[in-house]
Amino acid sequence: MANRSQIIGGLAFAAAAVAAPFLPDWVVSLATIAFANALVVLGLIVLWRAGLVSFGQALYYCLGGYVVALIARWTGFTDAFVLVLLGGIVGGIVAFILGFLIARYREIFFAMLSLALSMILYGVLVKTESLGSTDGFSVLTPTFIGYAPHRDALNLALYWLTLGICAFSALGVGAYFRTIAGALAAPVRDNEIRVEFLGVSVSHVIHVKVVIAGILGGLGGGLAALAIGHVDPNMAYWTTSGSFMFVAILAGAGSVAAAFVGSLLFEGVRSFAADTMPQFWQMILGTALLVTILFVPEGLGSLLLRLRRRKARPS
Amino acid sequence: MLTALSILTDGLAYAAYLFIIAIGLTLIFGVMKILNVAHGSFYAFGAYGAATAVGIYFNGHDWNAAGGFLFMVIAGMAIGLVLGLVLERGILRWVYGKDEVIVVLVTYAVFLILEDLVVLIWGAQSYPAYQPLVAAGSIDLGDLVLSNYDIVLVVLAALLAVGSSWALRFTRYGRLLTTVIFDREIAAAFGINVTVVYTVTFLIGAMLGALSGAVMAPKISVTLGIGVEVIVLAFAVVAIGGMGSIEGALVGALIVGICRAAAVHLVPQIELFVIYGVMAAVLIVRPYGLFVRAQPRKI
Amino acid sequence: MSDILAVRDLEKTFGSLLAARDITVSVPAHQTVGVIGANGAGKTTFVNMITGHLRPTKGSIWFEGNEITGRPSREITRLGISRSFQVAQIFPTLTVFESMCMAAAIGRHTGGFFSHIVTPLHSTEAIADAEAAIALFQIAAYRDTRALALPQGVRKLLDIGMAIAGHPRLLLLDEPTSGISIEEKFDLMQIVMSALKSRKITVLFVEHDMEIVGRFADRVLAFYDGTVIADGTPGQTLDDPKVQELISGTRLKGVAAGRAAGA
C-alpha cells in the first residue's frame, strides 16, 4: 500500500544509486557524507515536529562514529553494515537512558540540557588520551560482507550502504509519522494538557522520539566515520549540532525528503564555499539562516509542500 | 593546605571570569526572554577592541598602566554599545514575541555572521594584549603566587554583582526592569514602555558582554574563535543559576569556578566537562536553575 | 451496584484548607446531573477527584462497581471517564477532523504506547468514529477548519466531541456554556445534551446558569462550603430555601417557565 511520496522517494533513491558509477568520485563522497548527516537531521525533524529543538544531537553522531571506530580497532571486525548498525543501536540505548531525564523538559530547557549532555561527551573525549584526545584517531577501512574494496569501489560501496540505510530510515520514519504516536507530535506541541486528558502519556511519546532521534544520530555518525575515515571529539561539539540544526531549519519539518535534499544542498554549498570563499562561509550560513527564519519560518521544504497542496486543492 | 588554597584562589579567579561573562547574558534573558547566542560575539568584539586599544596605548608610550586598563575597558564597551545598537534595532526587534527557540536560532545566525565579520575587520592573526596583566604584577604569599590582575577581576566581579543588585532594587529604572522581568504584559499594562526597556537592556547586556571580553583580553590570546567556547560556558553558568537571576549567575559562577579549580588540581581528566556535569546535575534537580521557581502554567 | 458512579465520604484537604468534606453521592447510569455552587464551593475539587487529578484525603470513589480512588488520571480516562474544560482545550493547528480523528484513534487503542507506535492514525474505524462525532455535534461545516480559527461555540463542541470520541461511559463537563453568549447557550446545550443522550453517556455538568441547569438536568447537586447541601430534581433543589439563600437567589417562577418553553 505504497503512497505517492513513498513511490517518488523510492524512485529518487533508486536513481541516486544507479547514477553513482557515472558520477565523479568527489560527488559520490560528498553525497555519502551529506546523506549520513541527513539521518541526524531527520532525527532533529522527528523532535521538532513535537515542538522540541535539540541543541545536542551531535552527542549521538559522535557516539555512532566512535562506536564504529573503536569496535573496528579493538576487535578487528570491519564489516561496515554491522558496525554502523551497532552505532545506531548504541545511540538508541544511550538515548533511551537519557530519555528518562530529558523527556520531562520542554523548550529552552530541553535544548540546553541536550547541549550540556553533548558537551559532557566532548569534554570526556578531549581528556581521554587513549582515544587520541583532540586529534581523535583514524577509522580502519571497512569491508562489505567479506569483500575489501579499494578506492573508487570503496567509495561506491560506502555510498550504496549509506543510500540503503537512508532509504530504510526514510521509510521507517515516514511510516512512524503516520502512526498515532508519530502523529501525536502536533497535538503534544499544541496542547499537552489535552493529550494527557485523552489518556496518553506525553513523556512516553517524547521518550520514543528521543530514542528514534538517537538511533538516527548514531547511524549517521557511524556512516560519517566510515566515509571520512576519521573521528574526533569535534563531532560532539555544539557547533556540529548547530550545523545539523541549520539544515533542519532550512529544510523545514514538513517532510522526510526535505532532510535529504536539504543536506545535499548544504554539503554542496559548503564544499563550494570552502573552495572559493572560506572566509565568508559562516556569514553566508548565518544570513541564509536569518532570511529563512524571518521570511520562510517553516523551511524551504514547506514552499514545496504549499505548491503540492495548491495543486491538490480542487476538492 | 597549599592545594586547598590554590583551589580557592584559582576557583575565585575563574568564578570572577565566568560571572563577568554571564551577567550580561542572564540580564538579557531575564528581561527579554532571549537566550542570546551572539553574546559570544560581544565577548569577541570586546576582546579585539581591547587588544587594539592596548596596542595603541602601550606602543612606544610610557603611560600609566592603570590608564591603559581603563582605556582598554572603555574601548571594549564602546564597541559593545555600537554592536548592540545595530543588532537590536536592526534585527532583533523584528523577532520580539516569536517563539523563544526561534529567537535563539536568530541570535545563532547573527553570531555566525559576526564571526566572519571579526575576521574581515581584524584578520586571522592573534593580537597580544598582555601589557595590563604584566604591569599589574603579582603578590607572593609564601608558596602561593597571586596575579594582581586576577584580584582586579575578582573585585570587578564583586562590584558588578553588588552594583547590579542595588540598581535593580533601588533605582527607578532598575525597578522598571524588575517589573518587566516578572511579567512583560502586566508591565506594559502599567504603561511601561517595554520597547525602550528592551533596547536599553540589550545595550547594557551588550556592553557587559563586551566588557567581559575586554578584561579577559590580557589573559588570553585574542584570536579566531574565542567567542565559540565562551557561549557554552556562559549558558552553563546561567542555566545553573537560573535564567534571569543575577544572584543565580553569581552562585553558579562560584560553584563552577571552585569545582573546576578542584578538578584541575585533583582530577585533571574531568576538568573540561565538570561545568557541563554540574549544569546537568543542577538541571536534573532544579529544572529551572537554582534561583528561579517553576513558572505556573497560564491557561 | 447498578450505579455507574458512587462516591462515599469523600474528603480533600490542602494543608489546613478543607476543600471538600462528607460527600456521598450515587449516580445511576444514563442520568444527567447538574452541579451548582459558588466559586470555591468544592465543585472543581469534586470533579478533579473523580477524574484522578486529585487524590482524596479520605473516602472512596467507585466506577461501574470498581474502586478507582487514587488511580492516576490516565488510567481513569482509559477506564471510561472523560471530561471537557471550562476553557476549551483544543489543538490550534489541527483541523476539526484531524482533532476528532486523533481522539477517536486514541480512544480505540487504549493498549498503551506500544500500540500507538504501530497503529496508523487514519484507520477506517477512527475515521468513521470521527465523522460520526462531527455529525453528532453538528459541526460538519467546520470539518476542515483549523481549530484556532473556530468561533467559541464550535470550540466548545469540539472539546466535548473529543472527550466522547473514545466512547466513555461517564462524562464530566466543566461549565460547558461559559464564554458563550446568552443567545447561543441554549442551542449549544441542546446539541450537546441530545448528542450525549443518544450515546447513552452519563453526564455530570458544572454550571452557573440556573436556567440551563433547570432545563437540562435530571438531578441537581448543590455544593456549598465543600459539601453537598441539596440533592434532588431541579425543581426540588432550585426551590430549596438553603440553595436559594446561599447559591442561586430566589427564582422568579414566571420568567423561568417562559424561558424554558420558548428558548
Annotate the secondary structure layout.
The complex is a heterotrimer of chains A (315), B (299) and C (263).
Chain A: H1 4-19, H2 25-49, H3 58-75, H4 80-102, H5 107-126, E1 137-138, H6 151-177, H7 180-183, H8 185-190, H9 192-197, H10 202-228, E2 230-231, H11 238-251, H12 256-276, H13 281-295, H14 300-311
Antiparallel strand pairs in A: 1-2
Helix pairs in contact in A: 1-6, 2-6, 2-10, 2-11, 2-12, 3-4, 3-5, 3-10, 4-10, 6-10, 11-12
Chain B: H1 2-32, H2 39-58, H3 65-90, H4 100-122, H5 131-136, E1 138-141, E2 144-147, H6 148-170, H7 172-182, H8 184-189, H9 194-216, H10 226-241, H11 246-266, H12 274-285
Chain C: E1 3-14, E2 17-28, E3 32-36, H1 43-50, E4 58-63, E5 66-67, H2 73-79, E6 81-84, H3 96-108, H4 113-118, H5 124-136, H6 152-164, E7 170-174, H7 182-198, E8 202-206, H8 210-216, E9 219-224, E10 227-232, H9 234-239, H10 241-248, H11 253-262
Parallel strand pairs in C: 3-8, 3-9, 6-7, 7-8
Antiparallel strand pairs in C: 1-2, 1-4, 4-5, 9-10
User: How can the largest sheet of chain B be summarized?
Assistant: 2 strands, antiparallel
Assigned CATH architecture of chain C = 3-Layer(aba) Sandwich
Q: N-to-C SSE series of chain B?
A: HHHHHEEHHHHHHH
Identify the strand order in the major beta sheet of chain C: 6-7-8-3-9-10
Most extensive chain-chain interface: A-B, 41 and 45 residues
